[in-house]
Specification:
heterodimer; A: 163 residues; globular; B: 89 residues
Chain lengths: 163, 89
């Protein structure tokens, strides 16, 4: 089972966990993206999310199908992304995976968020405390190379150590 | 065969500053994605200058169902979108 949506209403962690819950599932893994109050040295006041909704939801469905093919067809997958403006602490994205065992739930959840960041037609505009705003740089879709989520994880860890 | 088709392209992200209404273009039948992208800069250069050539170069054209390759021919019946580099999450 999969659930995919772009929503203009506040996202619900309870709805995500309820969707991926099942009697046969011994594990659920949850990723929640939130608006933080800083980025690249700038004090952030809020973020606006823009999305090409039909293609974003189609991309979410592709990602869920790929996660299930990779880690198990019995995995329940949930992706919900916000569109509109959020203040600090607002929930921008919720990803959840439910499965009989924890390894597949961890893997599927990580896979879905990494793929979403590289492939979903969604953009964010940061609004700074000083009154400026800017669209955040992202990943090009026109020369899209298939992203290995395991490699994406390794790269993020290297970047974290480098900074 | 008509001499041109009118297409409409929805703008997102950083291209929103050129307007929230879809961009209208008249294109010859059989035009490719690459050819349409080449027309976008001129079309967006009114009333002010177009300042996003580098971003346009790495932007994609897409339908509601998929991202199009640069050498694909445009189907004027499809709703199109110009997608700058993405950063959801």
């Amino acid at each position: 089972m999969i659930h995919c949506e772009v929503s203009e209403y506040p996202l619900s962690i309870a709805a995500a966990t309820a969707f991926v819950d099942a009697p046969e599932n011994g594990a659920m893994d949850l990723f929640v993206g939130r608006v933080r109050n800083h980025n690249l040295g700038q004090a952030v006041q809020g973020v606006s999310y823009d999305a090409f909704v039909p293609l974003a939801e189609e991309t979410f469905r592709d990602i869920c199908r790929e996660a299930r093919q990779r880690y198990g067809e019995d995995i329940r997958c949930y992706i919900s992304h916000f569109r509109g403006r959020l203040d600090i602490g607002g929930l921008s994205v919720i990803i959840a995976a439910g499965s009989p065992h924890r390894a597949e739930a961890f893997q599927a959840c990580r896979f879905m968020i990494e793929r979403l960041k590289h492939r979903a037609p969604i953009w964010k505009q940061e609004h700074y405390v000083n009154g400026d705003s800017a669209w955040v740089k992202g990943h090009a879709l026109c020369c899209h190379a298939d992203v290995d989520p395991d490699e994406a994880v390794r790269q993020q860890e290297q970047d974290a150590h480098a900074h | 065969m008509p001499e041109s088709h009118r297409i409409q392209i929805d703008l997102f992200g950083t291209f929103r500053k050129y307007g929230h209404a879809p961009l209208s273009l008249d294109i010859p039948p059989g035009s490719t994605v690459r050819a349409v992208k080449a027309r976008v800069a001129d079309a967006l250069a009114h009333p002010g200058p177009f300042e996003d050539h580098d971003i346009l170069k790495v932007s994609a054209l897409a339908t509601e169902r998929r991202v199009l390759a640069e050498d694909e021919r445009i189907d004027p019946r499809e709703r199109l979108a110009l997608l700058p580099p993405v950063c959801g999450g």
